[in-house]
């Protein structure tokens, strides 16, 4: 009689959370090193696209699929939905991380976000945002000034 093998459940995929703020620089070859803390979670390839408020957004392939599916489900009869989908999807590019965890930032995206040399990379749970550091500092200062008002509005949403 042969032994019966007991089925073993595969462990559930560990969820991750991209959080924190990191200062980096874009080199002369337009390469940007992503924070070492995130490289294992991001995988070998990521999607980089336009973000809102003049920054760039970086998604894992899995998160991009979720996001692009949501965009595909938007109603095409609404001009805002069409415009947002066009902005996000037409600006998207799949890029590979090299052995040092760097990505090549395409010229059109670099120009869109006004990226020079110094950038701030922000972890926002399911994506990264890449900001020109000077623009990020202005944005952050303005956001911090109105935080009490924002908190009171979000309180009604249970946050």
Structural account:
This protein is of the alpha+beta class and 159 residues long. The chain has one domain: Chemotaxis protein chec, CATH 3.40.1550. Helices cover 38% and strands 26% of the residues. The strands form two sheets. It has a six-stranded antiparallel beta sheet with strand order 1-7-8-4-3-5. Strand 3 and strand 4 form a beta hairpin. The radius of gyration is 19 Å and the shape is globular. The relative contact order is 0.20.
CATH superfamily: Transcriptional regulator MraZ domain
Tell me the number of helical segments per DSSP (H or I, 4 or more residues long): 6
What letter string, H or E per element, gives the SSE order? EEHEEHHEEHEEHH
Please identify the oligomeric state: single chain
Determine Rg (CA atoms, Å).
Answer: 19 Å
Largest sheet: 6 strands, antiparallel
